[in-house]
Amino acid sequence: LIDAAAAHAKPKISAIYLHVQVSNGDAKRFYERHGFKEVGLYKDYYKKITPHDAWILQCDIEQAEKAAVAESK
Questions:
Q1: How far is CA 33 from CA 8, 43, 45, in A?
Q2: Distance between CA 27 and CA 24 in Å, rounded?
Q3: pLDDT tens, position by position, for the chain (73 residues)?
Q4: Whole-number CA gyration radius for the chain
Q5: How far is CA 65 from its chain centroid?
Q6: Torsion 20-24-26-28 (CA) sign
Q7: Minimal CA–CA distance to 45: which of 13, 5, 17, 15?
Q8: Backbone angles phi, psi at 31, to 5 degrees
Q9: Lower CB count within 10 Å: N or C terminus of the chain?
Q10: Distance between CA atoms of 69 and 3, rounded to whole angstroms?
Q11: How many whole angstroms separate alpha carbon 31 and alpha carbon 36?
């Protein structure tokens, strides 16, 4: 997904966002290991499950590309 976003030129995609339920620390750590950072909290995102809140995570495409190049060296 990150590679596809990086290759997309018109319009240029600069970031990918996702949400993770606040009780799912394993998923949050997984995304953080793959370049995502917590940028906010969405209160009452989920209506049918508890807890209702979600972390908002963001991955900056340019930084993710640089990290991938560094890993391949």
A1: 23, 24, 24
A2: 6
A3: 888 888 888 899 999 999 999 999 999 999 999 999 999 999 999 999 999 999 999 999 987 766 666 677 7
A4: 14
A5: 14
A6: positive
A7: 17
A8: -65, -40
A9: C
A10: 12
A11: 5
Please spell the DSSP secondary structure of 6-62, one letter per residue. HH-TTTTP-EEEEEEETT-HHHHHHHHHTT-EEEEEETT--SSSSS--EEEEEEEHH
Rounded (5°) CA angle 72-62-56:
110
What is the distance between the alpha carbons of residues 48 and 50, in angstroms, rounded to a whole number? 7
Run of H or E including 73: none
Mark 11-24 as b/e (b = at least 16 C-beta within 10 Å): eeeeebeeebbbee
Residue 67 structure tokens? 């990290």
